[in-house]
Amino acid sequence: MFEFAFGVDDLATTWITYSPLQEAVFSLRARRRPAAYPHYRRWTASWEAEYRELDSALLDALVTPRVWVPDFLTPRPSSRRPSFESELALLARTAPETVAKDFAAAYRGDGAPLPEAVASRLDDPERLLAHCTAQLRGYWERCLLPRWWPRARAVLEADLAYRGRLFAEHGAEGLFAELSPQLSWNAGVLRLDDPDPRVRALGGRRTRVAGRGLVLLPTLCGRSAHTVIDPGEPPVISYPARGTALLGEQQPFPEVPDALAELIGPPRARLLLLLAHPATTTALAQRLGVTPGAVSRHLSALTAAGLLTRTRAGRSVLYARSPLGAALASGGR
């Protein structure tokens, strides 16, 4: 059990973002436990050849058998929507002694021995860190960035948009209650009950936010909310993002009812049905196999008609059904 105690001003410094580096590292969990992350099966199979050309033994060792991750591999973001390169640069500045300490803590907590790919390099943690950084860069550029990351980012952006609306409508208690069943809010204390017995064996602890800000990170490869192993690290909680199933096998296109197609046209009707979850122009274009320009024209028309809303998310724009659009989509079925 972990508790995060908030002072009077700490809610004002609580923010939500996502971390490309965390998602890259956490995606390695899908190799450790493929049955637990079925939405990754198609992806891991698609980049298997590229993965094997990297130091796959080391990359596999970055996640323990029970999918614990050494804390230094997922540094807390220092800005909203950081780039992978900026986070990798932060990782590369990790103190060598922290690398050895965090690997030992993760595998000790898991109850598993250090794998040879790590143990054989621990006498030179600075070199081990450089090798981890280089292999993660290769994994990102060759396996994740070309096709996986655009879809993953769209799902994460949609989660951020949803959480922002939830906080505005229901406040902190409503926000925290929706993040994960393991989280509860009471009298200025956020409580995290981790279901993992090995985490429970570490004992309970209370962390005072104390002006440092709590960072909330949605992840596409998490089954419950969790925090860092080291209690001395700044407060951060990762939680399962909404819509992770959208990463899985290609879903069949929704059937467009004739009445809806006659009313607004087949292309716009299909877009309206596809927007059961918020998405960007690029993500919709990839799903439909057309150019972003073609999709953009239809989205603009649907927005002008009051059927969609637009929300800027960093450099992207998320489209979602308006109440009128949702009523039309459900009524047309």
TrEMBL record:
<dbReference type="GO" id="GO:0003677">
    <property type="term" value="F:DNA binding"/>
</dbReference>
<dbReference type="InterPro" id="IPR051011">
    <property type="entry name" value="Metal_resp_trans_reg"/>
</dbReference>
<dbReference type="InterPro" id="IPR036390">
    <property type="entry name" value="WH_DNA-bd_sf"/>
</dbReference>
<dbReference type="Pfam" id="PF12840">
    <property type="entry name" value="HTH_20"/>
</dbReference>
<protein>
    <submittedName>
        <fullName>DNA-binding transcriptional ArsR family regulator</fullName>
    </submittedName>
</protein>
<feature type="domain" description="HTH crp-type">
    <location>
        <begin position="271"/>
        <end position="320"/>
    </location>
</feature>
<dbReference type="GO" id="GO:0003700">
    <property type="term" value="F:DNA-binding transcription factor activity"/>
</dbReference>
<keyword id="KW-0805">Transcription regulation</keyword>
<keyword id="KW-0804">Transcription</keyword>
<dbReference type="InterPro" id="IPR001845">
    <property type="entry name" value="HTH_ArsR_DNA-bd_dom"/>
</dbReference>
<dbReference type="InterPro" id="IPR012318">
    <property type="entry name" value="HTH_CRP"/>
</dbReference>
<dbReference type="InterPro" id="IPR011991">
    <property type="entry name" value="ArsR-like_HTH"/>
</dbReference>
<feature type="domain" description="HTH arsR-type">
    <location>
        <begin position="258"/>
        <end position="333"/>
    </location>
</feature>
<dbReference type="InterPro" id="IPR036388">
    <property type="entry name" value="WH-like_DNA-bd_sf"/>
</dbReference>
<keyword id="KW-0238">DNA-binding</keyword>
